[in-house]
Design goal:
Length: about 120
C-alpha cells in the first residue's frame, strides 16, 4: 500500500516563502512521476508542478520562476519550495504519485496540507 504524507502548510504573508514536504512509503512499485496539485473550493484539483523521472520538471504558468519542485529518491521525499507567494496561491496542496502497480497505472494521493497567503 502506497502512503503519501504532506507537511509544511500554514499561514504566510504575501511575498513570503514556504516549503512543503511529502514523505512517501510503499514497496514493489514503479514510480513514473511525482507532483504537487492544489485545490480551492468550487474548483477542480489542478497540477502545480511535476517531476517526471529524469525529465525536466513541469510548472504551471502561474508559478514559473517562483516555485521549485525537488525530489530526493534516496529519502523518498518530494518538496515544493514556494517563494514570492501571492493571495491567489491560497489552497489545499496535495502530493501525487503516478506509478505502475500490478500491471496498471495508478495515482496515489496524500491527505493535503493547507496554505493560506494573507496579510
Amino acid at each position: 500500500q502506497v502512503k503519501l504524507v504532506e507537511s509544511g502548510g500554514g499561514l504566510v504573508q504575501p511575498g513570503g516563502s514556504l516549503r512543503l514536504s511529502c514523505a512517501a512509503s510503499g514497496n514493489m512499485r514503479n514510480i513514473k512521476a511525482m507532483g504537487w496539485y492544489r485545490q480551492v473550493p468550487g474548483k477542480s484539483r489542478e497540477l502545480v508542478a511535476s517531476q517526471p523521472g529524469s525529465a525536466r520538471p513541469y510548472y504551471a504558468d502561474s508559478v514559473k520562476g517562483r516555485f521549485t519542485i525537488a525530489e530526493d529518491t534516496a529519502k523518498n521525499t518530494v518538496d515544493l519550495q514556494m517563494s514570492d507567494l501571492k493571495t491567489e496561491n491560497t489552497a489545499v496542496y496535495y502530493c501525487n504519485e503516478r506509478a505502475t502497480d500490478c500491471g496498471d497505472e495508478h495515482d496515489y494521493w496524500g491527505q493535503g496540507t493547507k496554505v493560506t497567503v494573507s496579510s
